[in-house]
TrEMBL record:
Annotated keywords: Dioxygenase, Oxidoreductase
Signal peptide: none
Source organism superkingdom: Bacteria
Protein name: Quercetin dioxygenase-like cupin family protein
PANTHER family, sorted: SLR8022 PROTEIN
A GO term, aspect molecular function: dioxygenase activity
Every Cupin type-2 domain range: 42-102
Organism phylogeny: Bacteria, Bacillati, Actinomycetota, Actinomycetes, Propionibacteriales
Annotated InterPro entries: Cupin_2, RmlC-like_jellyroll, RmlC_Cupin_sf
Length: 109
């Protein structure tokens, strides 16, 4: 078994996001070929947004650091470190109010 040091990975990607023109950095932490689950660690610099996009299917967001807002056309969820939310099956975006790291988990069908 391989242990992933998520806190160290989060810190590294926050640094990369801050230095990046896009203000974000991401890596797939789980999701081998043929897997039914994919998990992606995403770091966002403060004030940056993952633009509006369609929900990938059954998915959840876990806020690991900072504060983000998951927004749809008719609702929003403010997440702080330790908060988890199911991603609604509709178009949405994610905005970082502070430098933040989230873990996106997506069920692959």
């Amino acid at each position: 078994m391989e242990i992933l040091r998520v806190d160290e990975l989060a810190a590294s990607h926050l640094e990369s996001a801050a230095a990046s023109e896009s203000g974000r950095s991401a890596t797939t932490v789980y999701g081998r070929s043929g897997a039914r689950l994919r998990q992606t660690l995403i770091a966002l610099d403060a004030g940056r947004t993952l633009g509006e996009h369609q929900s990938p299917g059954d998915a959840s967001l876990l806020c690991l650091r900072g504060e983000v807002v998951l927004r749809t056309a008719d609702a929003e969820a403010e997440l702080h470190a330790g908060d988890l939310v199911a991603v609604p099956p509709q178009r949405h975006d994610v905005h970082a109010r502070t430098a933040a790291v989230i873990l996106l988990s997506v069920a692959l069908h």
